[in-house]
Amino acid sequence: MRAMRMLLLAGAAMIGIGAASPPAPPPATPAPQMDRDAIGHQRFGNDAPWYRDRIPFFESADPLIDAVYYYRWQIFRGHQRDLGTDGYITTEFFDDVDWQRHPYASLNDASGFHIGEGRWLNDRRFTDDYINFMYRSGGNDRHFTDHMADSVWGRYLVDGDRADAIEHLPVMNHIYRLWDDKFDFDKGLYFVEPLLDATEYTVSSIDSSGGKDGFRGGDAFRPSVNSYMFANARALSKMAEMAGNRGMAADYAARADALQKRVLDDLWSDRLGHFIDRHQSRKNAFVNYWDPIRNRELVGYLPWMFDLVPDDAKYAAAWAHLLDPASLAGQAGMRTVEANYEYYMRQYRYLGKDPECQWNGPIWPYQTTQVLHGMANLLDHRQQTGPVTRSVYMRLLRQYAALHYQGTGKDRRLDLEEDYHPETGQPIVGLDRSHHYFHSGFIDLILTGLVGIRPRPDDVLEVNPLLPDAGDSQALPWFRVQDVPYHGHRVAVTWDADGSHYGRGKGLSIEVDGREVARRDTLARIELPLSRAATPVIARPINLAVQLVRGHYPMGSASTNTDMENVHDAIDGRVWFFPELPNGWSSAPSPAQQWFAIDLGRPTHLARAELAFFADGKGFAVPQSYRLQAWVDGVWRDIATPKGSPLANGVTDLRFEKIRAARVRLLFTQAMGKAVRLAEFKLFGD
Description:
Elements: H1 36-44, H2 48-52, E1 57-60, H3 63-78, E2 80-82, E3 88-90, H4 111-118, H5 125-136, H6 148-159, H7 162-166, H8 169-178, E4 183-184, E5 189-190, H9 203-208, E6 220-221, H10 223-242, H11 246-266, E7 268-269, E8 274-275, E9 278-279, H12 302-305, H13 313-316, H14 365-381, H15 390-402, E10 405-406, E11 413-414, H16 443-450, E12 460-463, E13 478-486, E14 489-496, E15 507-512, E16 515-520, E17 526-529, E18 555-558, H17 564-568, E19 585-586, E20 593-614, E21 625-632, E22 635-640, E23 650-669, E24 677-684
Antiparallel strand pairs: 1-13, 2-3, 4-5, 6-9, 7-8, 10-11, 12-17, 13-14, 14-15, 15-16, 18-20, 19-24, 20-23, 20-24, 21-22, 21-23
Helix pairs in contact: 4-6, 6-10, 8-10, 10-11, 14-15
C-alpha cells in the first residue's frame, strides 16, 4: 500500500512544494545542523576540505554505520583518477592490474557502483567526467558485463538533469546492440563466461571443467547478465522517450519486456525455488547445453535489484535460502554458493599463501551490495516479501558494514578487501591490490535504504526509511542526513524515535534547502511534490601535469630515488593517503635538500599548484620548508615561497602570479632522518 501523503509545513510553496493540507506550526527549535568542519576533521583529518562541500553528511545512533559511511567516501575520493584533459575516472583498484584498460586504469565492471555512489555528490564533476569517458572516450570496452546505462538513468533520478542523461544515448544504443554477440536468438537470453561476468569459479565454470578448474569457460545463461541487459534496455527506453525518439523507446521497452519474460520462464528453477544459471556450452564432456546448474548461487537475487521480479509469493520465498545457515547464510556474511555444493570453498588458484579470487563460496562485497539493493526494493514496494523484514535488512546491512574492519584492538582499521571467508569474515585474497577495493557500494545503500530516499523521475521527493519499529533489536533510534543533492535542491532527513536526541519532537522530518517541509510521528513513507531546480554548473579545472604513459610528457625528475615508476607515481593523477598501499614519489632520507621537477614539454601558462604529501609519523614527514620554482630565462626562479610546512595527508594549494614556463620544480628541506612522500603534484593554468 502506498503511504498517505504527509502534512506539509508553512512556506513550502516558496521552494516549489505545493501544500496538500492546512499548514502546521513549525517546530520551536531550528533544524539540527551537523558541524561539517568538526566531522570532517574527525573523519578525514587534513583532507577534510575535499569533502566539506561535496558529500552529504550523515550521523546515527550506530557508530559502526557512521564510520563505514565516511570511510566509503574516502574510498570514493581515493579512486578518483585525474586524467588531465579527459577529466576524472573512477578506478576499481589502487594498483594497476593487467586486465585494466591501459593507460587509464579503467574497468567497466564496477561502473554501476561507481556511478551509484558518485551520484550523491554535490560536486557533479566526478561522475559526469566518468560517464563522459566511458561513452565518449571508449571507456566502456565491454570487457565485462555491466549495467552502466541503467546507472546513468539512476544518476538522472537524483540530479534531474535531462541533458546530461541523454547526451550519450546514441553510443549507449550502439554498445547495447554489440551485446548481440552474446545473445542466443533461439532462447531469447544473453549468455556469458563467468570470468567476463567478473565472477570466476562459479558452479557453471567449475562443473564445465569436471571440477578440475573453473577460471575460464563455463558459458551460461545467467541471472546477472540478463538482469543487467533488462535494466539497460528499460533505461534506454526511458531516456529515448525523454529525447523524443519514440521508435527507440518502444523498441527497448519491448526488449525489456521480452527479456523479463524469458528470465521468469527459463531461469527460475521450481526445483530449487531460485533463479539459476543454465549451461550454454554445446560441446562439453561434463555438462549439457540448457541444463540448469545444480546448486543455488547468490547471483540468483540480482533480478530483484532491477525490479525484474513480480510481486508474487512464489518468488519471494527464494529469500529463505539467504537466511538459511545450510544454504547461503554464512556466519560472517552471504555465501556466493550454498554450502552443500560439491566444490564449495575449494581453492583452485594460487594455492598456498596467495589465494586468489573465486566465487565458489566466499563473501564478496560486490554481490552483497547487489543483494541488499534487491532486498531494499522488495521491502520498499512489494507486498510479498517472504521471510524478509526490515529487521533482517538492518541485520545484514550491519553485518556487511562489519566486514569493512580488519584487525583487533589497536590494530583495528578500516580496509575493505576483495573477498572474505563466509564463516570467519577474514580476507581471503589479501594481495597488495586488494586494499580499499572499490567494486561494491555502501553510501547508496544508506541513502536509498536506511534513510529511504527513493529517487524518482517525476517532481516528487519520496522518503521511506527501511528501519524496524522501536523495540526491535535492529532498530535505530535516531539518524540525520543533510546536504543531499536532489533535483537541484539540498535535502535533509531526520529521524528521532522519541524526540529526545534532537529535541524537536519525535518522528520523521524532511527539509528542503534549509526549510522543514514535512513531518510525521512514525516511520512510514512520505511523498511530497518538489519542482526541480537547475543543477549547479560543473567547474572543470584541468591538471596539466598528469603523466598517463611513462616516458612521455609531462615527465618528472627527482633529486633521489629516480626509478621511473617511483617518479611517475607523483604525477599519475592519483591521490590517497591510506598507509597500506604506497602512493607517490618517495625521497631518500638524505640529503636534507631535495627536489622534484616536472617538464611539461612546452611553455605553458601556469597560475596554481596542488601538493599532496603523505606522512605516517614514522619514516615519512612533510618538508620543514618548501618553495616552488619555474625555469625562466635559463635559471630557476621562485614563484611561490610559502611559510611553514605543507599539509600532511591533505592537499596544499599554492597560487602565484601567472607565468609561462615549461619546467617547474618543488624545492624543499626534509626533517632530519625523515623521507618525504609526494603523493601528487598538480599544475593548473587557472
